[in-house]
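seq as requested:
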Amino acid sequence: MHICPVCERSDRTTKLSAHWRTLSPEGRALAPHLARPALHDERWSAPLGLLALGCALLLSEAWLGFVGVAGGGLWLVSLRDKVAQTARRRADWHRKAFCRRCHQAFLP
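struct tokens:
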């Protein structure tokens, strides 16, 4: 058991994921801050298409190809960072504990 940093007790702590599973739909609606972070539906086809179009324009020696390659590359990097951030938040959620005495979620 983990010790709650607020009430400094360990007799009513549990995993946050286990606590979330025991909540009723009404309880979940009242505590959205305890929910597991959602996965964002990232669309990779649009930035990849822009990158491919930029490469095709570069091969035809059009200056607009540089814009397409740079824009597609930056878009892909920002999507990759957003996916990594979401994965970190979900991993933290799985590690969190919950105190049923003072209703606080905390990282042990």
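Strands lie at 13-15, 97-99, 104-106.
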